[in-house]
Amino acid sequence: MELKSVYSRLSSSERKILLVVTAFLVIILPYQFFYAMPAKKLGKIKQEADTTRAEIAAINAQVAALRSAVETRKIKPVRDLSVPRSEKLSLLLQEIGKEARVARVDFVSLQPEAIVDKGDFLELTIKMELKVRYRELYEFLDRLEATQQAVRVQELRYETTDALYPFGVAVLSAATYVRKQ
What pLDDT was estimated at residue 75? Predict the structure, then answer.
């Protein structure tokens, strides 16, 4: 065979080099491809799993905190909602105006939209157009919710333009209830 003739022509130092290279190929390369690289990948996967477990634990802690916050909010005492007599409607509008001033909301317009007879009381729909920043709008709605008067926001639209920025125009339709005389 030709390989035997090539091997027999090599000097003893060349044969030793060939033996070392062959041993390297037979021992080191399979070790590298079948053990070392998968072990390195396994180490990375274990590290990612540990990181993911830590993230899941942190998220579970946040979920528990949010659940407890929701539970405390559910236990919040129920406020006594009142339905005023029609002569106290001006007081209601004054209260809405006061809450708007506290929340730094500017009224563009405030006008009654509709009055619907609901038996013992009237449903009064008020359309409010406000010049307001988004955060102050949230504060106003939050304060409006906390009033003694039952007010239900039916529609809310918020728009802004470059000319108005950082303010916007919020148009909301709110319903309140008034007892008949």
Answer: 46
- Has this prediction a pTM greater than 0.85? no
Cα–Cα distance for residue pair 34/43, rounded to 1 Å: 15
CA 5 to chain centre: 77
What would the mean pLDDT of 108-125 be, rounded to a whole number?
83
Q: What angle do CA 21, 26, 32 make, to 5 degrees?
A: 100
Residue with tokens 């209601």: 92
Percentage of residues in the chain having pLDDT higher than 90: 16
The residues, ordered by sequence, that sit 6+ positions from 180 with a Cβ below 8 Å of its Cβ are 86, 120, 121, 122
Tell me what percent of the chain is helix, strand and coil, each rounded to the nearest 5.
55, 25, 20
